[in-house]
Amino acid sequence: MRTLVLNAGFEPLAVVTFRRALLLVLTGKATVLADDDRDPIIGVNQVMPRPTVILLNRYIRTPYRNVAHVSRRGVLRRDGHSCGYCGRSANTIDHITPRCRGGEDSWENLVAACQSCNSVKADRTLAQLGWKLRFAPSRPRGAQWFITELERPAEAWSPFLRSAA
Question: What is the pTM assigned to this prediction?
Answer without folding.
Answer: 0.62
